[in-house]
Design brief:
With 249 residues, this protein is of the alpha+beta class. It has a domain of 118 residues. The protein is 24% helix and 47% strand. Strands 1, 2, 3, 4, 5, 13 and 14 form a seven-stranded antiparallel β-sheet that branches. Strands 6, 7, 8, 9, 10, 11 and 12 form a seven-stranded antiparallel β-sheet that branches. The termini are far apart. InterPro entries: DUF2993. It holds the Pfam family LmeA. This is DUF2993 domain-containing protein.
Length: 249
């Protein structure tokens, strides 16, 4: 019995040492992965990298990790200047968090690719406002208007505030409409559910040059793509997804 007790104590000690060693190594690996991701994506700050699953050592020996979670603050995504996109060249995306699953390494561990990835992020209304018209647009003779504010309209809608001047007189208050936000490929679109009432008859296509706008979002980390968008209290919440996503290398 005494020998068995000693054997159990030794096993517990060795197990504890293995857990400690495993956690030390995974911490080092997370730091290295974060630095490589910062360099490869040209990030202004170091992202958060968390390697899931236990034990880490047996996963790394097998050449594949179950899951890695990546968190990036204030990611600057490309907007890809086009004739339809008159906004800035970059747009800031807040709180980009992605779960990478089935992460396989190359033989020399210099690169890693995830079999699949899903994630979430937010584009603030202030950032999205940059995609709307920044200058007053003439809608009819003596009538100009421009979008001056975006906010949460409730029920997944964006509230679009339009400031208008009619026959030289600015309306006392901005006129608001609710818009539906959607994603098509790499473009986020906002389309008014109804036209603003400015007190004058307007052609629909003219009115929509003010109320409707779009923003292309390209160059997300590792090649992940937009999947869904929804208006939320602090901005537009987006979900992303991808396959064969490159983490480094």
């Amino acid at each position: 019995m005494r020998a068995l007790r000693i054997l159990l104590i030794v096993a517990v000690i060795l197990g504890g040492l293995f857990v400690i060693a495993d956690r030390v190594v995974v911490g080092f690996a997370e730091d290295e992965a974060a630095e490589q991701l910062k360099t490869s994506e040209g990030l202004a700050s170091t992202p958060d990298v968390s390697i899931k699953g236990f034990p880490f050592l047996t996963q790394i020996v097998g050449g594949e990790l179950d899951e890695i979670e990546v968190g990036i603050q204030n990611y600057e995504a490309d907007t890809g200047g086009t004739a339809q996109n008159t906004g800035p060249d970059k747009i800031r995306i807040d709180d980009l968090t992605a779960q990478m699953r089935g992460v396989a390494f190359s033989g020399d561990y210099s690169s890693a690719t995830a079999d699949s990835a899903t994630g979430t992020a937010t584009i603030t209304y202030d950032e999205l406002l940059k995609a709307a018209k920044s200058e007053p647009v003439q809608l009819a003779s003596g009538v100009t208007a421009e979008v001056v504010g975006l906010s949460d309209g409730g029920n997944g809608k964006i509230k679009v505030e339009v400031e208008a001047t009619v026959l030289g007189t600015k309306l006392p208050q901005p006129v608001s409409v609710l818009s539906t936000v959607s994603v098509e490929g790499d473009v986020v679109r906002a389309r008014a559910d109804s036209l603003p009432d400015l007190g004058v008859q307007l052609a629909e296509d003219k009115a929509r040059t003010v109320t409707d706008f779009q923003q292309r979002i390209d160059g997300l980390p590792g090649g992940i793509k937009l999947d869904k968008v929804e208006a939320a209290p602090n901005g537009v919440d987006i979900t992303v997804k991808g396959s064969d996503v490159t983490l480094a290398g």
